[in-house]
Write a structure and sequence with these properties.
Two copies of one chain form a homodimer. Chain A is mainly α. Chain A folds into two domains: about 45 residues, Homeodomain-like (Arc Repressor Mutant, subunit A), CATH 1.10.10; about 130 residues, Tetracycline Repressor, domain 2 (Orthogonal Bundle). Chain A contains 13 helices and no strands. The longest helix of chain A has 24 residues. Chains A and B meet through helix 7, helix 8, helix 9, helix 11 and helix 12 of A and helix 7, helix 8, helix 10, helix 11 and helix 12 of B. The structure holds a DNA duplex. Chains A, B: This is Transcriptional regulator, TetR family. Chains A, B: It comes from Flavobacterium phragmitis. Chains A, B: Pfam families: TetR_N (PF00440).
Chain lengths: ~200, ~200
DNA sequence: TTCATTTTTAATCAAATGATTAAAAAATTT
DNA sequence: AAATTTTTTAATCATTTGATTAAAAATGAA
């Protein structure tokens, strides 16, 4: 029986390069050669370790979807925290995740658009948006408004600046520092705004 | 001297097909053969009329950017309307544009991400975000908050549902009718919410 | 060291893809 | 109608790209 242990360092180099290139350019615009070059490795190694571009992409995408939904899922389903507390937890936590990974939302959203069938099962967004504790609490507070409206606002106010970041950068309007400053300000502002919406 | 007139019908068929395929799949994932097939025409005609995939894409993209910024630009720079009036004009007008062209925001934003250099000049977002009458009026009302914060909220609350639409569709959570219903409700809700933010 | 196994590389393949060409078909002019 | 120009088509090119292969290099076991 042959040795099966694989050099973790090389494997990790490839997937790290794949994370970077896929999230920057999207699946279709990414060449496997781009990834190999970014990793500083021979192209054939990519297929040796991950079989195909598609498989490597699936790994990265699963990771990224996990990041995008992973932070909020436990908060949203905690029945020990109030609606108010949830908002105060979600906003800064989510903004921090996005600050660490600014390209994440646009990457995930555009890939889902490009290949909706492939993600219909994997995205557990449905449960969060219909059966979560948060939804129940929103309905208690505002029975006459579809709770999805508030969730769209809460997530949208967090995510939207990151989705439009390339526009700001292309127009030279915001550098990285002033963008981050803007997001820091939003950590308290969004909480205030969402509470205003819920109290009126 | 030969006749230079070109059959507008064929040309229009191609660009209409290009609009559809490019906005659905993005530049990189679009094959010129997809466009030709969608138009029901020979592939070579695409190059006969538009020289290259790149040129055809530039035309479509210019159109789409125009649609995305064209509706709000005149409203935003009108110094005869109040801040309140501007919000009441922008929200339903913008939501109607997006209802007619739901894929528009995700298409434009992801293409700008994929090729930022190419759009640095063309996007006049900079002026709207710094020199518009709207910005001055926002600063009068709330001198202590970066007006960009409110613009992000106003545009984000309009655009974000359309950016996440593929997720809703993939998860089977919303059909087209209930999505449109959600947007219709937002026409009045967003106006109310933005006013709340500005008054507190 | 020797030998087997694993990892890496250079070369190459086959399919896809943007684009061109030359000829046919259609339209327009004279 | 004849001639000229414009439009359309089928065939083909050259390049790119995901993937494979066979051999070399590195690693670990005996």
């Amino acid at each position: 029986m042959a040795k099966k242990k694989i050099d973790a360092s090389t494997e990790e180099k490839i997937i790290e390069a794949a994370r970077k290139v896929f999230t920057e350019k999207g699946y279709a615009a990414t060449r496997t050669r781009d990834i190999a070059e970014e990793a500083g490795l021979n192209l054939a190694l990519l297929n040796y370790y991950f079989r195909s571009k598609e498989k490597l992409f699936s790994l990265v995408m699963a990771e990224k979807i996990g990041q995008l939904f992973g932070v909020i899922a436990p908060i949203v389903n905690d029945d020990k925290t109030s609606l108010q507390e949830k908002i105060e937890l979600i906003v800064p936590a989510y903004l921090n995740v996005l600050l660490q990974n600014p390209g994440l939302p646009l990457f995930v959203l555009s890939e889902i658009r490009n290949n909706p069938e492939h993600f219909s099962n994997r995205v557990q967004a449905g449960k969060i948006l219909t059966q979560s504790v948060l939804v129940k609490q929103l309905l208690e507070k505002q029975p006459n408004v579809n709770p999805l409206q508030f969730i769209l606002n809460l997530l949208g106010m967090c995510i939207f600046p990151f989705v439009t970041k390339p526009v700001f950068e292309a127009s030279g309007l915001l550098n990285k520092a002033s963008f981050n400053q803007l997001i820091e300000e939003r950590k308290t502002l969004i909480v205030k705004w969402v509470n205003l919406m819920l109290d009126n």
